[in-house]
Amino acid sequence: MKRLNFHAVLLLSIVMLFMFSCNKESDKQESKKEPKQEQKTSTAKDTVQPKTENTAAGKDVTLSASEQKKLNIFFSNFSEVNLKPFNRGEISTDELINFGVYHNYINNRKLFEKSSEGKVRISEEYVINSVQKYFGLELEKQESTPEITYKTGNYYIPESSGEAFYFSQVEKVNDIGYDQFIAYINVYSASSGWTGNAHANPKDWDANADDKPQLMEKFKASYLKSMKTNGEPAYTLVDYIKQ
User: Fold this and answer.
1) Does pTM surpass 0.85?
2) Rounded mean pLDDT of 24-32?
3) Distance of alpha carbon 142 from alpha carbon 20, whole angstroms
4) DSSP string spanning 5-40?
5) In which region does residue 178 sit, left (phi positive, over 0), alpha (psi from -120 to 50) or beta (all else)?
6) How many CB atoms lie within 10 A of CB 169?
């Protein structure tokens, strides 16, 4: 009877030891699985993020004939003065001054007066206003550039006339949200005597004309759109990148 109890106790001890070992092994397996599960979650997040960023391309805008013309005129202000390409926030003071002076010389010649130096001059206030209007920037520093002389509140340039002129046509516009847009622009050059329609489809220009406009450059430009008090759209240039 004593021998039987001894064998029963021994068998029970072996069973309990076996069960304890199985539970321990099971715990080890569970602890090994946890990092794998965490890694899967992290990888999933990494693959989702680029997709969100890639959706910022914007949507195509269908322009009315009226807005197409307004945008053509807006961007022609930059092509006709041969504005140099620039990235957002990187346009130089020299380039802003050059724009402000030459833009007015082409479009507002009456603002210039002849000077005793044999040049024409324009008051700095008109240059400041043009920079604010077309770039939304304050031109706080008034100075000469390699092309233009500044002296006592005026900018001076030589008179010129009869040169070829440049104009722009907007090919496509994308709306990227928050009143921001991207325009794809074709820049053309024509002789000073050309009398065609700068807003017409290039296919409609006389193919046999000697002075037919020629495609010179392509640009991709970001701009902001707002509304004036009279309900007309107003645009400001953000960047101007050559393609």
Assistant:
1) no
2) 50
3) 86
4) HHHHHHHHHHHHHHHHHHHHHHHHHHHHHHHHHHHH
5) left
6) 22
